[in-house]
Amino acid sequence: MSSQFLSTQDIDRVIEMAWEDRTPFEAIEFQFGLSESAVIALMRAELKSASFRAWRRRVSGRKSKHGRSNISDRFKAACHR
Questions:
Q1: How far is CA 55 from CA 1, 13, 43, 71, in A?
Q2: Per the domain annotation, does 42 fall within a domain?
């Protein structure tokens, strides 16, 4: 889904998810069909330039904004969370 086909509420939700530290770009792509580069373009278009720069500094190189690349094979008991 292209950002031009998103409703105002969807755009607000994408921006909210992009600002959250724990929401990976993969979750945004799964829910809205926007790749990481499309999210960056959407943020650039919707945010003030200073806000966009602050957001880019915040997410650049942040591992939590990308899906986990290695899934742990270790045993985890059912009683542990």
A1: 23, 15, 9, 28
A2: yes
